[in-house]
Amino acid sequence: MDKDELRKRALSVTTIPNHFHPFIEEYFEGENGEGEAMFSWTNKKEDEGISINFDLAGNLTRLSIDLHDKHTDKISLNAEERKKQAEQFLLTYYPNALEELTFYEMKILDNAYRFHYELLVMDMPLMSSGALIDVDPEGNIVQFSYEATKQIPEIPTTLISKEKLIEQVKQKLNFDLIISNLYSSIHSVTEDGLRLVYEPEPSFMNYKASELIPTLSIIHDDDDISETHIPLAPPKHGAIQKDLSVNELIGITEQMEIIREVDMGEETGIVWRDRNWKMAEQDLSIDGFFKRQTEDTVKAFVSKETGKVRSFMWFIERRGNLNLSREECLQKVLEFLQMSFPYYHQYLQLIERETEDEMDEATKKEVFTFNLHNGHGVKILLELVIVAVNRETGQIDHYSGPSFDPKQLSKVPTEPEISSKQAKEIFLKHLDFELAWHRDYDVETDSYILVYQACDLYSRTPIRYIDGMTGAVITAEDN
Fold first, then answer.
1. In the chain, where are the structural domains located?
2. Which of 322, 265, 300 has its CA nearest to residue 400?
3. pLDDT in tens, 441-454
4. Overall pTM surpassing 0.85 (yes/no)
5. For the packed helices 162-172 and 420-430, what is the interaxial angle rounded to 10 degrees?
């Protein structure tokens, strides 16, 4: 189908509100004839939207409807009624879908019920296949996705035993004492926040079901890159810590105005642009979308709790006559950190990588990366501070700080109550394995392999940590 035919089909899927305008129209076609068409509409504030995707044969692949909640007097449909609505919608666009797909599970979301229809092999779903359908209380379809499976995987003739897997884990298992920022939405904890925990290494344990070969493991950056972590000296005696506003810290000028302000939960996203900026031409392509959203802007995330800038990025090219050395740029970074990250020297270490050149030659920026610890040598997982300096202007073009308020570190114990040996014993008591189909990324074809994935014996979800103070097993939430 051509773009005009697909647009007509998109308009037949759902009713587009009169106050919406076209936002994106994109048509992709690959060398093999496969491709996708995407259509989206939004309101003037761009805080509501409808997005519809088709393959080039005209099959609906995705639908997303994000409208403000509308309170009505209608009685909410129950789960069975919503399931009927989901199946009716699925069969409208894929009449034979239920001959291949099986209803697998329902999840209750904040504003909808989510129904999963899966292609089952050995009574297990194939990852990234089948249909996902969200139905709101009135029975409206607000999310839909469908992905066909091109190849049914072969079932291994023999499987290794769980006992062999567990024995191998016992031999290779280690634990790192770290601090992790836990969230009740994704971890089995009741309160969000920093916690002293033991992380198992390897942290993700997946094995091919037919042989003792780990697969789909995370490869840490420091496995292949030699790093040196350099402690930072305290600021010079008498240096002043300025209490700057958000605009002053980022460098927002009087010629700029806020064009978007978005509630991101714990943070507020803010976008600035020159008030006289205009797009050269109306372009509904994906490229045009990114230009409207990003070109000549400054973007920042500001913590609602502290009012402090958590990160920002200049997408405006700033030029100057300087030619700062890396050492001079580092001094600019330390001066900036003194204003944005009080007592930074107590918690940060500069990462120097022998195999990497930190300067971006194309944009003339020097990039500095720091790891975080608690001031007593315990690292904070997945937390880095990144600062980029413009060598021509000496200005900070990019800053990405910690995801938490550093003041919280003072509340985290510095020594565990549970030993590494005890953590290992607790972990092994809870360890089990279950079979699952995973995409085989080692081959180019769309194929699957059967794997054993580690899980908690009781929750059947992955074990992420052992609490360093209580010995509690912290698992991933089943989302």
1. 3-147, 162-224+415-475, 246-410
2. 300
3. 766 667 888 999 99
4. no
5. 170
